[in-house]
Predict the 3D structure of the following.
Amino acid sequence: MAHDLHETARALVAEGKGILAADESDGTIKKRFDPIGVESTEENRRNYRELLFTTQGAEEFISGVILFDETIRQSAKGGTPFPELLESKGIIPGIKVDKGTKPLALAQGETITAGLDGLRERLEEYRSLGARFAKWRATYSISDVLPSDDCIWTNAHALARYAALCQEAGIVPIVEPEVLQDGTHTIERSFHVSSRVLAAVYVELSDQRVDIEGTLLKPNMVLSGYDAADRAGPDEVAERTLACLYKHVPAAVPGMVFLSGGQSDEDATANLNAMNVRRPHPWQLSFSFGRALQAPVLSAWRGKPENVEAAQRAYYHRARMNGAARSGAYTAEMERSETSSQ
């Protein structure tokens, strides 16, 4: 089983490829649909996910897709289950298994992620439905005093318990400790908090006997706060993020699949590119983007069948840009090149 986990983890961070995070909960995808005037019905959600999963050529740059519970049970219009459809294109199906964040008791402004109860049984079912990897997200807010040690260590313990259960089920765990970048904090504060979080996560993973060669890390990039007056550019983001990773992440981890958070599409790609320009690294530096891959797709689609082709072109373009960033080959000029589209 360990060999299979290692192979899957390496396949997810194959050269030039990354992961599409299409695991929005019903509440989150409603927030995505509302601005484009699309009602969040099961059929509209299915149509939208099918648009993404059937985009011709996306498999050149997309190694895996994280699905939501509803989506892993749905099928394309022709009757093919979505996991089977993805597998037929050489894309690995995954599944979000956490139950979202809840207030951490006696810790004002901090959260703990729910979902450990019954997780062993859910993982067995998801494996039977075709999932070969999973994702669990913990969140940490930055202020002058947050996050607390309690928040850092409680979430690290939960992430490690989740990862151990995944590996028991033959599923690769993506470990996502997201330091939220909302606020006015400096990049130095982001580095300090991200370092504390990652240090705790790898202590707990070791204590829970998790085979880290069969895991992936989904970290935040080390950024200035989104509302900071003086925000760091791609070079400084790359230097700070890499320093944090080199300090805390074992070389045996196959790769990082960065989250995009609240970054713009192009900022997330440029920051990833800046890190890969500085190769080689002991791990693959890849992406697991949701909004940064999908925002232009939603804008082009707007729920109209006649817009599907344009929406798929937008998705292919963003996937291609991030595929280029995987090797440090991305440039801003590529965004405007006519050859960037199908």
Q: What stands out?
A: Residues 338-342 have pLDDT under 50 and may be disordered. The two ends are 39 Å apart (CA to CA).
